[in-house]
Write a structure and sequence with these properties.
With 250 residues, the chain is of the alpha/beta class. The chain has 10 helices and 5 strands. The protein folds into 2 domains: 137 residues, Glutaredoxin, CATH 3.40.30; 94 residues, Endoplasmic reticulum protein erp29 (Up-down Bundle). Helix content is 53%, strand content 10%.
């Protein structure tokens, strides 16, 4: 017990003294602290980069780290690598395939797994794609753009329940939607409508609707309509996510 408390105190002390920025939500790791810290978390999203990172990719990583900073089981960390002087963390970077030519490199480390999972940025190095990457590979739920956290929780609960319980959750959802302000009310009604359609048509409605909207997105529509449809897909994925890899919620 004493040993466990000692480890926890070490982690807390380390995180407190190594926060990159009070509102960034990520910590700096080195070759000396990397294994000790990463191993303490269910999941750790680590960016290997230059010692003083900047640019859109860095900003995307920081934005998601800030958004998810309340999740105790998920660590966001950065390893700054120097190719000059004492070449700090260079060997650690090479161990995970991070070189000057490939920066930034993002890896997801999962407790119990020997090898990390590499982030594929072919679809874009954005906060949204990083969020999907974490969700899909860790089971830790991160709300997507256009979603409402409380209603995401109900969507997950709905999809994992029997029909009788789903009807009760629909009522609960309606009560939540009624209390939303004008800005969120329209979004809330989408959750309610999806639940009604699932009760009427079955779970296959989720996949069918996602496919239908994806086809619409390939057509000639305004940017405003594209944004609206993309948000609807994100809400639908709140339902589909829960049926396979739910772990925690944000």
């Amino acid at each position: 017990m004493l040993a466990y408390i000692t480890v926890i105190c070490f982690v807390i002390t380390f995180l407190s003294s190594n926060i990159v920025s009070a509102d960034k939500g990520s910590v700096e790791l080195s070759e000396y602290t990397f294994d000790k810290i990463v191993s303490k978390f269910d999941a750790a999203l680590v960016k290997f980069d230059v010692a003083f990172p900047f640019g859109d990719k860095h900003d995307a990583f920081v934005a998601l780290a800030q958004e998810a900073k309340e999740l105790d089981e998920l660590l966001f960390a950065e390893v700054g690598i120097k190719d000059y002087g004492e070449r700090e963390n260079e060997i650690l970077g090479l161990k995970y395939g991070a070189t000057k030519e490939s920066f930034p490199v993002v890896k997801l480390f999962l407790k119990g797994k020997n090898e990390p999972i590499s982030f594929d940025e072919t679809k874009g190095f954005t906060s949204e794609e990083l969020r999907r990457f974490v969700r899909d590979n860790s089971g830790i739920y991160l709300s997507l753009p256009g979603c409402i956290r409380d209603l995401d929780t109900l969507a997950i609960k709905f999809q994992n329940s029997a029909k009788e319980e789903r009807e009760k959750i629909l009522k609960e959802t309606e009560n939540v939607v009624e209390k939303l302000d004008t800005q969120d009310a329209a979004t809330g009604k989408i959750y309610k409508t999806i639940m009604q359609k699932v009760l009427e048509k079955g779970d296959e409605f989720i996949g069918t609707e996602i496919n239908r909207i994806n086809k619409l997105l390939t057509g000639k529509i305004s940017n405003e309509k594209k944004k609206e449809l993309a948000s609807r897909i994100n809400i639908l994925q709140s339902f589909s996510f829960s049926s396979s890899n739910k772990k925690d919620e944000l």
